[in-house]
Specification:
The structure is a single chain. The protein has 377 residues and is an alpha+beta fold. 24% of the residues lie in helices and 37% in strands. The chain has 4 helices and 26 strands. The strands form 7 sheets. Strands 5-20-24-23-22-21 form a 6-stranded antiparallel beta sheet, with no helix packed on it. Strand 21 and strand 22 form a beta hairpin.
């Protein structure tokens, strides 16, 4: 207990313990009293009633015009490119020369094969002449049948050697001819992948040739959209803003997704596609897709919030006017709305604005837009 000493005349002091005791009691009471709990404000929230609605699966995709048949051309033999005649964007006819390899080694090999062919032909002619001579001697019984059969075997061996040399000469001649690369069909060179002076192996692409003929509009779609497309489906393609409009049918849908973009390649066969230049950009319109206008639950993106590793919304309990968290599964996006795959049922009411400042079980009220007074003027 604290005490105070007070002076009482002529140097006398009195300790006022009663006053100190009263002050200590007041301090103890003030320290033990709890502050009043602050009432959480009732927030006004915007809500909507969940219901089934139509899902518009129409879409627009940017496509590139490509030739129906596009081949990569390369030499059938290895060597050093000595000359390149074709340029990118050049139109070529079938059989037109595109590039040339250094053919010196192949020409020497062809000459060696021709020399072997000449030697084999000479040996065959000698064996054939001997066989005819021995055949005459056998007719006069000057030699035995065994000797004639031996000459016949020699002739057959010489003929086989000649056939082998002939095939070898033809092969070497072809190898020498393969040193010149020619276009296998009329079309347009869309890419040049090798230059003069470069050493290439057999089969290395040197040119990319887009064949004349039908054209395709090639574009990529997402996994959710590819399930709505099917072969033979009619689609429209527009060149530029208000430009040429073409119609086509889907002729090919990729069986697997691209490993990088995770999209699927779709090829649309264009009617009268020859009117559109290669490489042009088209806007492909997908309308009336299978499964569109299906009964789905859609909510605005403003109603979603992140909860843990998933997505959730606030569901209103109209009886208690409190909110509770409800986990949902998002299937796809449709503009400013998302399609809910699971977690909500038609008829439930959810909060659509200010979801990040609410807490579970919080009391709320329905937001009412202020009424603007109408002037009498």
């Amino acid at each position: 207990m604290l005490s105070f000493v007070l002076p009482v005349g002529a140097g006398r002091w009195v300790i006022c313990q009663r006053t100190v005791a009263s002050l200590a009691a007041l301090l103890a009471l003030s320290a033990c009293s709890r502050p009043e709990a602050v009432q959480e404000p009732v927030r006004a929230v915007k809500v909507m009633t969940v219901g089934n609605s139509g899902l518009d699966m129409s879409g627009e995709f940017a496509a590139e015009v490509r030739a129906r048949v596009e081949s990569r051309l390369g030499f059938r033999v290895a060597g050093k490119i000595s000359q390149r005649q074709a340029e990118m964007g050049q139109r070529v006819s079938a059989g037109a020369p595109l590039a040339q390899l250094d053919a010196a080694d192949y020409q020497l090999a062809a000459q060696a094969a021709q020399a072997q062919l000449s030697g084999a032909r000479t040996q065959r002619d000698v064996a054939q002449a001997e066989y005819k001579r021995y055949e005459g001697l056998r007719a006069q019984n000057f030699i035995s049948a065994v000797e004639l059969e031996r000459r016949e075997a020699t002739l057959k061996a010489a003929q086989a050697t000649l056939d082998q040399a002939l095939a070898q000469a033809q092969n070497q001649g072809n190898q020498a001819a393969y040193t010149q690369l020619r276009a296998d069909a009329p079309g347009v060179i869309t890419a040049v992948e090798a230059e003069a002076g470069q050493v290439v192996t057999a089969g290395t692409p040197v040119f990319r040739l887009a064949h004349d003929g039908p054209r395709d509009a090639v574009f990529a779609v997402s996994e959710s959209m590819v399930m709505k497309l099917q072969k033979g489906q009619i689609m429209q393609a527009v060149l530029g803003q208000g430009g040429l409009t073409l119609q086509g049918r889907i002729r090919e849908i990729a069986g697997s997704a691209d490993p990088v973009t995770r999209t699927y390649t779709v090829k649309l066969a264009l009617d009268a596609g020859e009117k559109v230049p290669l490489g042009a950009t088209l806007n492909v319109l997908a309308q009336g897709l299978k499964g569109s206008q299906a009964a789905v639950i859609k909510v605005p993106t403003s109603a979603l919030r992140q909860e843990g590793k998933g997505t959730a919304v606030w569901v209103l309990d109209e009886a208690k006017m409190t909110i509770a968290s409800q986990a949902v599964q998002v299937a796809a996006a449709d503009g400013n709305e998302v399609v809910i795959a699971a977690g909500l049922q038609p008829g439930q009411r959810i909060v659509t604005a200010g979801v990040h400042v609410l807490t579970p079980g919080q009391k709320v009220s329905l937001y009412k837009a202020p009424i603007t007074p109408v002037s009498d003027r």
